[in-house]
Amino acid sequence: MIEEKSKIYHFLRGGGDMGRLTREFNWNETSLGPVNSWPQSLRTMVDVILHSEVPMLLWWGDDLIQFYNDAYRPSLGDNGKHPGALGQKGIECWPEIWPIIKPLIDRVREGGATWSTDQLIPIYRNGKIEDVYWTFGYSPVRDENGSITGVLVVCNETTTAVKAIQKVEESEQTLRSVLLNAPVGICILDGNPFQPELVNDLFLELVGKNRSDFETKTYWEIFPELEERYAPVLDAVMSTGVPFRGKDVRLTVILNGVEDVVYVDFVIQRFKSATTTGPGKLMVIAIDVTDRVLARMTIEESEQRYKTLITESTVAIALYVGRELRIQYVNEIMTGYWGKDLSVVGKTLREAVPELAGQSFLSKLDQVLTTGVSYVGREEEAVLKVKGVVQTFYFNFIYKALRNSSGEIYGIHHMAMDVTEQVLARKKVEQSEHMLRNIITKAPVAMCLLKGPAFVVEIANERMFRLWGKSRREMIDKPIFEGLPEARDQGFEEILNNVYATGQSFSGEATRIALPRGGSIQNVFVNFLYEAYRDADGTISGVIAVASDVTEQAKARQRVEELVDERTRALAESNMNLKRSNDELAQFAYIASHDLQEPARKISTFTEMLKKNLKEVDQKSTVLLGKIENASTRMLSLIRGILRYSQLSKEPQQISQIDLNEVVRTIMEDFELLIEEKKAIIKCDQLPVIKGIPIQINQLFANLMSNALKFADKDRHPMVSITSSVAPKDEVEAHSELDDERHYYKISFRDNGIGFNQKNARQIFDIFQRLHGKTEYEGTGIGLAMCKKIAQNHNGAIVAESEEHKGSVFYVFLPL
For residue 5, what pLDDT is reported? Predict the structure, then answer.
């Protein structure tokens, strides 16, 4: 049994990877059936294919079942048809090219044969459809009965070779096109005696010849006058390969039937393309430099005129020479743009203006030097260091290549104009217009922009369309009174015309307007504002309309107005009563304190007289008399304090300029003895001049100085520091007593005294409030209350910060 199987499968032995796959394949599932049932002709062909080094594929039977060898395997690519193509039906394997190859297969099965060279047959491989070129032949394969039952494909993929040839042909065509359209005269000479193969129009124009001459004659037949001089040159270039260059060569040519002299620069070099064969070719490249040669005679005079033009020009001009862009000429306008002076002459542009590194200007200049093509910049941004500050500017400028008499680019002419203001203004306008559009479309009220004298609706938000009672389609890009004719006869056209003509705004409150509502015209009440819209130059170009429907508010206001009138009358009466009560209270406090002074003085006086009249007084009586005297003194001090406090509530006194520095000097003189006694140190910065009531400001500063000296720490000398600054915005906003819209001085009184608990910072400004006993520190408890009242009288405020045993600071806020 083993020998029989070995005999049946001997044709499948070897065959490389495809031999193994063929042996392992389950052929029972194909129309061919098991291998032992295959005809001898099929076995023979499979044996031949598997052991051939030539790429082969076999289609067998009506289903065109496929076999192929290792040589054919690479043509199937990766991630493509292999290994599924083995044992697969042809139509299932090649659906993408079946319309191409099926007619060829049918022809072979009818007894014919095919052969194709470099045939394009796209196939699916490597995960996609690829253009593949093949050289292949289809041959019939007959079985034992002589019937054609198979098709043998012998093929070779030529994709790489075909594409290489195509690339060469495309390259040759591109080169020919480039030469014919080159901006210089070009002539290609083939072999020796140098037959012209290609010549472009610029070459013909330069030498004054017809194209027919180059099609029928040799080079020396066309130019016999040049043969003696240049024939050895062409021979040398052909033999050595070393190019020959001619500069400013004089030629006598016939142009339009007239003899003329031209000057050319030319290069003769050996030319070789991908298809060049034989002895080789020469390429002659010529450039007309007649103008350059003729211009050379006037260069010195021109340069002097140019220098004068630069220095006296009203625009910025500079001249850069050489590839390194060395500054040869520059005027002061240009150096002013750079933030430099005329000492930059002789330096390279990179050295003179180092800020240009990293910007695009140096590369653009290099490009102009290379190509000779001028560069025009419009509103281009430049970052320059001017007056020690790096700033952004915008310029209009031109870089123009300068050529010498030989036509060679030797430098660049640079003209510039600073357009920073125009650019920034335009950007500001664009930004403003963009912001305006956003504001209008997102505004919480109805807004629109009406352009031109016809008041065309250019922009409007949905709130405005709802107010008009119209759709966007009915209003946008139309004159307002065309889209909303209902408003024409209600006086708005005249108002808009006046705003457009004069620029004066117009506003209306709760204006009654008849507008479309629900298919009818109804009265609505509208608050609106018409504001002139101006272009960047200030010209009025339209009107901005802002409106809000206040119909409900207007109706509600009508209902409320009656209540308001009634409540207003009642409030006015209450205010009068309150003012009368306040005036009476203030008068009472003044009279009471004034009238109480006399009894208090008498008690003090009579007590003193009693002590003098009593010749002998026991110890207890002496103590009692002392207490009476102290009590009357405190009462008198308290009454005087109340009197001063009550006077602060009277009508404001005369306002005048007050130099706070002079106030401090006066107070220090008043406290001179106490300051010396306590060895106090007083420091005062420069203080401002304010407007106020002099006597009250003096009282304010005196009370604060008195407190600082009175509540000194017994273990250290008193130190008082008075400083001033403008109060920060956030501090002003933090105090409810101050007006957020005003600016204030912040006067600080800082001491190193006994301090107090911060929780009492508000309490200390209440009248009669004391934090210490009368025996510890004398006083009435009125001084800081007076400070607070004085600050309020000046539309200011006073606050305190402190920590026990670490001193206090009082901040007085007074308006600028």
Answer: 41
Question: Do residues 259 and 377 both lie within one domain?
Answer: no
Q: What's the rounded Cα separation, in Å, for the pair 808 and 758?
A: 10
Nearest to 698 by CA among 786, 816, 605: 786
Residue 608 falls inside a structural domain: no
Residue 6 scores a pLDDT above 50: no
> Do 71 and 202 fall within a single domain?
no
Integer CA distances (angstroms), 84 to 87, 92, 394, in order: 8, 10, 67
**Residue 816 to residue 810: CA distance in whole angstroms:** 19
Final residue of a structural domain among 366, 398, 418: 418
- As a residue count, the chain comes to 816
**β-sheet bridge partners, residue 548:** 527
**What is the number of structural domains in the chain?**
5
Q: How many angstroms separate the CA atoms of 665 and 675, rounded?
A: 13
Q: Are residues 232 and 319 in the same domain?
A: no
Phi and psi of 760, rounded to 5°? -95, 15
Which pLDDT value is given to residue 7? 46
Q: What is the DSSP string of 222-289?
A: H-HHHHHHHHHHHHHHHHH---EEEEEEEEEEEETTEEEEEEEEEEEEEE--TT--TT-EEEEEEEE-
Q: Using CA atoms, how far apart are residues 795 and 690, in angstroms rounded to an integer? A: 12
Q: What is the pLDDT of residues 86-138, one digit of tens each?
A: 998 989 888 888 988 899 888 888 888 787 776 777 776 666 777 777 777 88
* pLDDT-based confidence at residue 2 (cuts at 50, 70, 90): very low
Find the mean pLDDT for residues 284-313.
Answer: 75
529-554 confidence digits (pLDDT tens): 999 998 877 899 999 999 988 888 87
What pLDDT sits at residue 54?
Answer: 86
Same domain, residue pair 149 and 187 = no
Across all residues in the chain, what is the average pLDDT?
A: 82
Whole-angstrom Cα distance, residue 430 to residue 443? 19
Range(s) of the domain holding residue 481: 424-549
Please give the sequence-ordered ranges of beta strands (E in DSSP) within 404-472, or none if there are none: 409-418, 446-451, 456-460
C-alpha distances in Å from residue 668, one per residue of 224, 349, 705, 815: 118, 67, 9, 24
Q: Is 500 helix (H, G, I), strand (E, B) or coil?
A: helix
Same domain, 305 and 401: yes
Which tokens sit at 141?
């394969």
Q: Are 317 and 228 spatial neighbours (Cβ–Cβ below 8 Å)?
A: no
